[in-house]
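Good day; I would like, with your permission, to put a structural problem before you. A protein sequence and the structure tokens that stand for its backbone fold form the material at issue. I would ask you to consider whether the tokens describe a fold that such a sequence might reasonably adopt. I set the record out below, with my sincere thanks for your time.
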Amino acid sequence: MNDRPPGAPRPLAGLRVLEMGALIAGPFCTKLLAEFGADVVKLEPPGHGDPLRKWRYLQNGTSVWWHVQSRGKRSMTCDLRTAEGQAIARALAVKADILVENFRPGTLEGWGLDYPSLAAANPGLVMVRISGYGQTGPYHARPGFGVIGEAMGGLRHVTGTPDRPPARVGVSIGDTLSALYGVIGAMFALEHRRRTGTGQVVDVALYESVFSVMESLLPEFDAFGAVRERTGSILPGIAPTSAYRCSDGSYVLIAGNGDSIFRRLCGAMGRADLAADPSLAHNDGRAAKQAWLDGEIETWTSARDQDEVLATMARADVPASRIYSVRDIVADAQYRARGMIREIRTADGGTLKVPGVVPRLSATPGDFAGGGPRLGEHTDEVMRELGFDDAAIADLRARGIV
């Protein structure tokens, strides 16, 4: 289902974006811009393209991930290691509103594509730079992937159970957080350009993106010397909220940490004694008895199967959920009703389910027509827009420049 009104405008229509980068952080940033109407030209190395094309599960030789990450973009091959390729990229940047790159700092400078040079020809250019450690500081030249940002940003230290090594989140959360900050920064910079006429650099560091969502990690340490550690499925100091085992071996996530919600939870479990206990009336009191309280709740859930627990929580208006697998997601009525399970037709004629667009805008919603482009699918088209004729394009292709 897609409830996008026919002919509805997209808010970034007319915005020109040049993507120079690969894999996750930079391309995820431009994916979002493309979904909301920006014309994204993605530069890829001739011959093999973005390595993501070959990551994880391949369908007819192309990663299914590719069709999520690169939908709505135009693919152009260009060898940025050559002087001619750099000249082509420069010509594209002169016409762009936003340039997104996620190379190691110094790479663009080495190619003569530094921001001051590009801004001299295009003063309104906004350059989004996503890197492991940012463009400055003693670590700026180090290589950095999202997992390194997760480690340095503090997320890995608090993820997992106390008796096991630090665990990773099951997706590339450091990269996608950075991509989101890249989009936010670009929108801020465009508003500044609207007022002043000038662009600027948006400098996003992977580790800073992770660190910025670590809630009260820093002030807790500063004020109390407290160091958050791995605590499994609970968040110490907020109670009760955890995953509780059911009689069928499954788990239910119950979030009963609001005062009135906790009282409803107690009523649903038949535990009027807990609801009447003044020491449990507010979160600070419940947090002081968190382990014991979680045990009391799991004693109740472990005597019932998942369906009964969820039905009881629903009747009591207590937030609860099974732990969804992708199989649960695909079958879920809420996902379907909100258009979050979309089916596209790929270039080879097959079909593929992909996630819908987030966020939902009522007047100017985002959208996409299909999957990711074939490598270099739009090279000739983009080159002609730059003024190259067919003979010049054929010559550059024969020499491996595009």
About this structure: The mean pLDDT is 96.
